[in-house]
Automatic annotation (TrEMBL):
It holds the Pfam family Pyr_redox_2. Coiled coil: none annotated. GO terms for cellular component: cytoplasm. Its cofactor is FAD. Keywords: FAD, Flavoprotein, Oxidoreductase. This is Pyridine nucleotide-disulfide oxidoreductase. Gene3D superfamilies: 3.30.390.30, FAD/NAD(P)-binding domain. Residues 312-397 form the Reductase C-terminal domain. Residues 5-292 form the FAD/NAD(P)-binding domain. GO terms for molecular function: oxidoreductase activity, acting on NAD(P)H.
Length: 399
């Protein structure tokens, strides 16, 4: 029997890599190993469509079991990898079985960062099963406290308001999504949530969680029936660390997504790669999709440098947020119809490096797509032209 290619992690990145390998003509043995019992799926619907009841797992799975069988992809669930031996090119499963590999992709993702205190009314949102547990608790009139004003917390808050819950968001920092958004967009998010009836408290510290309330360090008591904690993700690097691979805040890779072991690659949320010379991880749909595909190609020997632009989106009520590229310091902005805003980030040569858009519905998507083309074009731009809402971005793209 031929030595297989193995993918550890059957989430979005791992699933996309497996499908890409078959699409690219790899006909050898292919094994996909996942901790969850489910088929590979995308995570954005967990905080939106699934909580709302408008979609189910089949609606956001990358494929069904018949398709995996048809493609000859062996899916191992409920039997996780417990040990990795790079020098011997093999790994061990929980049942003790050893599997050799010809090439390996680590797409182990992460898990919700948890509070030290565990109790029944505290829920998290990272997996399909966690989303189902939360959906059953979001009843009309339920008093929900969301700990964390990042995107997961805010999307849960928006969905819960739509389901008739009373919602309070607690954020330790001075603004919402402060790590990734410019102040103007953070303020727009804050205004929108408050307009929708969410109580948002900034600069607060948690003391403890009780059965019917959250206690803050300043002595305030926030009554609640349910607490959702959205304070980030803990990357699953333990397997790589124990195997002696280079790690930082994730599994470190080179320009080809190759780890410090020559026949092992990493992709998705757990992958720490260089962007503008700085190691970072990207916990986004776009990154999982692009790196899953790219790692698959390099497992086949393509030796392609990874240079995909980062980007993400978030739906908040009937508004949409989208970004593309690298956001360092804003140098120009333009107002969009309906009260939206488009921010531009340029380098010292006035070439577009990144953009961030906020507008009703999905109306900003076209502008962000044009910004992506402007970034790729690398042409110098005039800041006054970027700020002029009467001058189309397509016109700037034509030079």
């Amino acid at each position: 029997m031929n030595t297989p290619l193995i993918i550890v992690g059957a989430g979005h990145a791992g699933g996309r890599a497996a499908l890409t390998l078959r699409e690219e003509g790899y006909s050898g043995r292919l094994i996909l190993i996942g901790d969850e019992p489910h088929l590979p799926y995308e995570r954005p619907p967990l905080s939106k469509g699934l909580l709302q009841g408008s979609t189910d797992l089949a609606g956001y799975s990358l494929c069904d079991s018949d398709r995996l069988t048809e493609l000859g992809i062996e899916h191992i669930a409920g039997n996780p990898v417990t040990q990795l031996q790079p020098e011997q090119h093999r790994l061990q499963l929980a049942d003790g079985q050893w599997l050799p590999y010809a090439g390996l992709l680590l797409a182990t993702g992460g898990r919700a960062r948890r509070l030290p205190q565990e109790q029944a009314n505290v829920l998290y949102l990272r997996t399909h099963d966690e989303a189902l547990a939360l959906r059953s608790a979001l009843k009309p009139g339920a008093r929900l406290v969301v700990v964390g004003g990042g995107f997961i917390g805010l999307e849960v808050a928006a969905t819960a308001r739509g389901l008739g819950c009373e919602v309070t968001v607690l954020e330790a920092g001075p603004r919402l999504a402060g790590r990734v958004l410019p102040p103007a967009i953070s303020q727009a998010l804050l205004d929108l949530h408050r307009q929708q009836g969410v109580e948002v408290r900034l600069n607060v510290a948690l003391e403890s969680i009780q059965a019917d309330a959250v206690l803050l360090m300043d002595g305030q008591r926030v009554p609640c029936d349910l607490v959702v904690v959205g304070i980030g993700m803990q990357p699953n690097i333990e397997l790589a660390t124990a195997a002696g691979l280079e790690v930082g805040q994730g599994i470190r890779v080179d320009a080809h997504l190759r780890t410090s072991a020559p026949d092992i690659y990493a992709a998705g949320d757990v992958c720490e790669f260089r962007l503008d010379g700085v190691y970072q991880r990207q916990e986004t749909w776009r990154n999982a999709e692009a790196q899953g595909r790219h790692a698959a190609l390099n497992l086949l020997g393509r030796e392609l440098a990874y240079d995909a632009l980062p980007g993400f989106w978030s739906d908040q009520y009937d508004w949409g947020l989208q970004t593309v590229g690298v956001m360092t310091s804003t140098v120009a902005s333009r107002e969009l119809p309906g009260g939206g805003l488009l921010l531009f980030y340029l380098d010292t040569a006035l070439r577009l490096q990144g953009a961030c858009g906020w507008a009703p519905g999905n109306s900003v998507a076209k502008d962000i797509k044009l910004c992506e083309r402007l970034i790729s074009a690398g042409i110098p731009l005039n800041t006054a032209s970027l700020a002029d809402p009467e001058l189309s971005l397509k016109h700037l793209l034509r030079g």
